[in-house]
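note to self: the first set is below, dont mix up w the second
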Amino acid sequence: MFLRTFRNNFPNHVYFCPFRQKEVISTPINSIKKVYVPRKCLTSLKKTKNKDSLQKTTLDLIELLSSESGIRPEDFGVHGSIALNMHTVESDIDLAVYEAKNFRKLEKTIAKLVEEGTLTYVINNRLDAARLCKGRYLDKIFMYNAVRKPEEVNSKYGTHKYLPVNPVRFQCTVKDDSEAMFRPAIYKIENYEPVYSASALSEDKIPKVVISMIGCYRNVAKRGNKIEVSGMLERVENVKTGEISYQVVVGTGINENEYIRPL
């Protein structure tokens, strides 16, 4: 549906990717006027004169989290409506923290501040309960997510070809959650167990990685946790070496019933 809308109304924003052999929505670089970088948006917010109450609360919260966690202030950022200066008095506070290590520090710090009563968690569903990335500071709801630092970017466009194989639904154990807080969220897995016979795979096709393109499935499970996954099995080919591996992607846009569910 989205592709059809873009194809009919914004054809320059539809790109045929030779490495995925399909059309994707992609904005041409020459059409981008400005990139809003969370870290730079925070710097701009600090320099803003006559800050309103939400802007002041945002800076107070970041100062609190920085001092309690030991994370440098420059490793924080803001995004969402505050970054775009489009917020209202009802807006939430959207925070970014740079680097996986800092994200884990922030998790522990927020848990401590919740225990002390300075903050409270906001839990509306089972994913909120698993992620614990949403809270309340004073009278404002805040959310925090992780952003990779340049040295944490370990993938490059054009190095692999991807081919969808078939939908699968299975349970597994998280082997490595070191990139689970980013978007896309990457979970290395083991102990693949098909939920249905149609998801049974030969040994050479069993995926070692689950990748979620959907933001709400970031950080829903830690190493050692069991999860249920519904997604698309993909064949991955290294363009240079020809090596073949398999992964499962959640959020392909092909099937609405794709998810990662903590067990």
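second set (the one i keep forgetting abt)
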Amino acid sequence: MIEKKGIVRVKDVMKTDFGTIDGVATVADALKKMKSLKTAVLIVNKRNQDDEYGMLTSGDIARHVLAKDRAPDRVNVYEIMSKPVISVHPDMDIRYCSRLFANYNLVRAPVLENNKVVGMVSPNSLVLDGMYKTFQ
């Protein structure tokens, strides 16, 4: 039997390079940013301290813009983004994070510390980076 080597936390597997965008930006702006950052997900910035973070995925764009034949330069990010988003804490055990992803069918989650996004986590990073670390 393989012995586990302690708890792997979200902060151990999260990606710290992620893109952000303002909700008033157009989908065309978001597409340019996604392409330049080679990502399919952007965090939508808060408008003020009492607001919540949002998230825009390429799937959102496909469903709400491409499939409906809308012009990307005439649709704002805030019209099609998900908000609020389920976020996780950097100290969360990846097993619980994985359950959260499964329970809510998540593809990404921002990692929040002190009410600021410090990273992004995905099922791939939980499994490929996190599980791998537990059995090294």
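remember for set 2: The domain at 10-134 is CATH 3.10.580.10 (CBS-domain).
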